[in-house]
Specification:
CATH class of the largest domain: Alpha Beta
CATH superfamily of the largest domain: Transcription factor LuxR-like, autoinducer-binding domain
Number of domains: 3
Strand order of the largest sheet: 2-1-5-4-3
Oligomer: single chain
Number of helices: 16
Length: 385
């Protein structure tokens, strides 16, 4: 392998680490660099005891991939030998098992021969704390085994393959965690905002957006979070600053609770202030587009009297659909007689359902049911939007 080809292959590996779509052709490029017809890259998850063959050359069809992952992965002498030799150590197939013994093995007769592979140069690679990778380059049946020179070239390539796979794995994990984090924040009925040190809004879930649009207690001015009453803005900014310093050990207060009173006006009369819980942002876990995140702010609106959604009530208390609808109606303040008339049931039937609701919720009165449902911190996050 000449220097130009080697450099091109290494460059392609690191490009694939940043752009997962490019891994699809990587096995073909590695095989071509060794004048070989076949290459496969597999992952083994030790925590789940599973193997996945992810990137292969064209000689692999869907059936061969399924056969290997479901059966032959645990009966592969090349993999077993490479693991015994040590993760990260390149091996020639004939160093693990003689060519004749391999060609008499079950995996060759029923698997490898069918896709036209026999000899190998390969290694197992460290990928993460729970996963290892395996890279194998194969020669066809009837060809000569790989040589020590092939092994030397493979050894030069191996560190780059390993680092590219590790980077690929870490980026995938970050992207997955980011997606899960945003989906979770968006699903919450509590207002959640992420802000930079300056107070610039980087993210607001649907509940927070509604509060900002109302402009009662908090507002968004030119993309920045502001309290409606200017006198409360310094306290909010200090809490954001303290939260931002927390990961560096610069502040012991770590944000804190800030009250945001509603401004003057008839729509704000007799309303309690919003409560803003300001917490340090978890490093870069929010994703690369929120790299400058300083604080996560949870907003509680004490006037929000929305009840938990029916799905949440049913899951929490194992109500039937009819019992769930009754419980939801009671939480909204509807009287039994009104509910019976609305749904077209007799009051006797509704009272019978109510007894079942009380029994399943472990209460004996409507007031207890309402208090139990509304005080549940999980149910409070599952309010109907």
């Amino acid at each position: 392998m000449d220097v130009v080809l080697f450099s091109s292959l290494v460059e392609a590996l690191y490009e694939a680490a940043l752009n997962p779509a490019q891994w699809n052709g990587m096995a073909q490029r590695i095989a071509a660099a060794f004048d070989a017809p076949s290459c496969a890259l597999q992952f083994r998850d030790s925590s789940a005891n599973q193997t996945a063959v992810l990137y292969v050359t064209d000689n692999y069809d869907q059936k061969s991939l399924q056969d290997y992952e479901s059966y032959f992965a645990s009966r592969d002498p090349y993999v077993d030998g490479a693991l015994r030799a040590g993760i990260g150590r390149p091996m020639l197939g004939q160093e693990i098992i003689s060519p004749q013994d391999y060609m008499n093995s079950e995996i060759f007769v029923d698997f490898a021969k069918r896709i036209g592979i026999c000899h190998i140069v390969g290694a197992m690679l460290p990928v993460s704390s729970t996963a290892i990778g395996g890279l194998g380059i194969h020669s066809e049946v009837g060809a000569a085994p790989f040589t020590e020179e092939d092994k030397t070239q493979f050894t030069l390539l191996l560190p780059h393959v390993t680092r590219a796979l590790q980077l690929h794995s870490r980026l995938n994990t970050l992207e997955r965690d980011r997606a899960i984090g945003f989906q979770t924040l968006e699903a919450m009925s509590v207002g959640v905002m992420v802000v930079a040190l300056t107070g610039r809004l980087l993210f607001a879930n649907s509940s927070a957006e509604r509060l900002l649009q109302l402009g009662q207690g908090i507002t968004a001015s030119h993309g920045y979070l502001r309290t409606q009453m200017p006198a409360n803005q310094p306290a909010l900014q200090k809490a954001i600053h303290d939260a931002a310093l927390m990961p560096e050990g610069g502040s012991r207060t770590a944000g804190g609770l800030v009250l945001a009173p509603r401004g003057p006006g008839p729509e704000s009369e007799n309303k309690q202030p919003l409560s803003l819980l300001v917490c340090p942002a978890p490093g870069n876990a929010m994703g690369s587009d929120l790299r400058k995140a300083a604080a996560v702010i949870f907003v509680n609106n004490p006037d929000d009297e929305r009840s938990p959604g029916e799905a949440a009530l049913m899951a929490q208390f194992r109500f039937t659909p009819a019992e769930t609808k009754l419980a939801a109606a009671l939480l909204e303040g509807e009287q039994l007689e009104e509910y019976a008339q609305r749904v077209g049931l007799s009051l006797h039937t509704v009272k019978s359902q109510l007894r079942q609701v009380f029994a399943k919720a472990g209460v004996s009165r409507q007031a207890e049911l309402i208090r139990k449902a509304l005080s549940n911190p999980i149910l409070s996050l599952c309010r109907e939007n």
